[in-house]
Amino acid sequence: MSSATEPHGEPAAPLAHRVPDLGAMELLLAVARLGSLGRAARELGISQPAASGRLRALETQLGVALVRRSPSGSRLTDEGALVSVWARRVVEAAEAFDVGARALRGRRDSRLRVAASMTVAEYLMPGWLIALHGRRPGTAVSLAAGNSTAVAQQVLEGEADLGFVEGLDVPTGLDSAVIGHDRLLVVTAAHHPWARRRLPLPAAELAATPLILRESGSGTRQVLDAALAPHSGPAAPLLELSSTTAVKAATVSGAGPAVLSELAVEEELGTGRLAAVPLAPDLVLTRSLRAVWPAGHRPTGPARDLLALTRG
């Protein structure tokens, strides 16, 4: 479709520069309906001098007189009556636009899609969502749990409004906020030899020991791989499982030691089904928990409220 041109073939100015502003058209319609510039100004919540100035600017822009003023009131000229017909169509279209935009906002604010890493989804998210329900009872929330890499991808692709990850860094294309910190523990079944050890476990020994591990791409695995990188990374795993619950179950059964979030094993440590192994100072297994969203698009609506609750 070709762009608009002036009669002499020159490109026309942008439409926004050629069409009067919406406020001026609303004022013209109010004058036509009320027969008074003063009453029209009061209805629109502006001063009469401001209304007069807006009307003069409209007449200057169009190059015709629109209103005939007299001591008894204000009446539209023939040209003004014609312009008011066109203006009404524009104002009605703007009102329809506003109704549609508000409906879109309402639909957006009635649902929230969240993606969260396993640890966050299982041990932190339930409490946050209960609190969010108290603040926004009409919001329908869907929660997808996966490893940190999968969560970041969902947010990048627009499949989630807000994500929560446990990794060491923030993927390109996402902004983030640290919402907390987490400590990873080396845990074993109560009857495993490490459960009774007195000397702290050094990084080299952990790296040389086959473990029950989370899969590559999980935040837990990223932290462990980074901590053991000076020792060529962890040994080939005994088992590689895709959920924290599965890793815990295998560890409790005595299959071998594992590295898990302190949040995930609190109950098992309390009941004695798992034991935490003391770690040497050279073995640092801590991480930040982060909320993530598309870069440059700060969370709004229920996503903003959930983010505030996680940091409260």
UniProtKB/TrEMBL annotation:
SUPFAM superfamilies hit by this protein: Periplasmic binding protein-like II (SSF53850), Winged helix' DNA-binding domain (SSF46785)
Alphabetical keyword list: DNA-binding, Transcription, Transcription regulation
UniProt similarity note: Belongs to the LysR transcriptional regulatory family.
UniProt organism field: Actinacidiphila rubida
GO molecular function terms noted in the UniProt entry: DNA-binding transcription factor activity; transcription cis-regulatory region binding
Protein's recorded name: Transcriptional regulator
A Pfam family recorded for this sequence: HTH_1
Domain HTH lysR-type residues, every copy: 20-77
